Amino acid sequence: MRIIFMGTPDFAVPSLQALIGAGHEVVLVVTQPDRPKGRKKTMTPPPVKEAALLHGLPVEQPERLRSSDTVSSIAALNPDLIITAAYGQILPKAVLEVPRLGCVNVHGSLLPRYRGGAPIQRSIMNGEQVTGVTIMYMAEGLDTGDMISRVELPISDEDTSGTMFEKLSAAGAELLMATLPSIEDGTVQAAVQNEADATYAPNLTREDERINWSGSARSIFNQVRGLSPMAGAFTLWNGETFKLWACQIIEAKKDGADVQPGTVIDASSEGILVGTGDGLLLLTTVQPAGKRAMPAAEFLKGAKLAAGSQFGGGQS
Length: 316
Fold this sequence. Notes:
Elements: E1 2-7, H1 13-21, E2 25-30, E3 35-37, E4 42-44, H2 47-54, E5 59-60, H3 70-77, E6 81-85, H4 93-96, E7 103-107, H5 119-125, E8 130-137, E9 147-154, H6 161-185, H7 206-209, H8 217-226, E10 233-237, E11 240-251, E12 264-268, E13 271-275, E14 280-288, E15 294-295, H9 296-301
Parallel strand pairs: 1-2, 1-6, 2-5, 6-7
Antiparallel strand pairs: 3-4, 7-8, 8-9, 10-11, 11-14, 12-13, 13-14, 14-15
Helix pairs in contact: 1-6, 5-8
């Protein structure tokens, strides 16, 4: 088939590579513009662009697809199918109507749950134990189109957004390849989403990353996992940003001791033991302001962090 592929992050790369490997004619790759990255703000191409150029594929990077010349380019190429995977923009009606076989999306959740731009992170942050990938037809709404196929994957306590992105991107590519034949030959049977079951996973904000120590040990543990290794969860220490990259639940429930949330109970080679609104957390990988991420034990070698110190306020 003549296919236009639209995607941006690492999640989308396995699907693009699978299409190329299967011999489909990818006539255009559309991705987001290069963005500044790192402390030096170096302009960096998205992973999908890098993969496309590696295979000699043409690439377009409109800032806003709806108002760009890319819409005309897509129509002129007369594709059989448009496939998207974490592209990052909603396709306008003018694009949805171009391919004779429609537009399909590789979405990282079990629709209709977790529609939106951050389904993997929010699934973990909300403590879900199962997630998956849904192949769906695209419609004008946000992830509202009819569902074609899906696969489920478990989420363990050891998983982070990073590990689930890898698992789901591989599962999505495999599911896409298994689904394409029925789309091509017209035997596909799609199911309408049940709107009553719909939930949303909007893009993450800075406030989503801030730790509320009054929450439970389990909720903070899930928050840290869900934000790793991308943005990272953060609190304040000495009035500066202090990121948490890994932690362990030591006690899921209060044992009767009245510990102020965010209070350091102990600091040792094992990590930093902190009270929460319900239970205790051991911080094992941290990142103080201006420094790299490091084991908590290494941080403690040069930091004065005694029992009774407080996270989340202006002073330690």
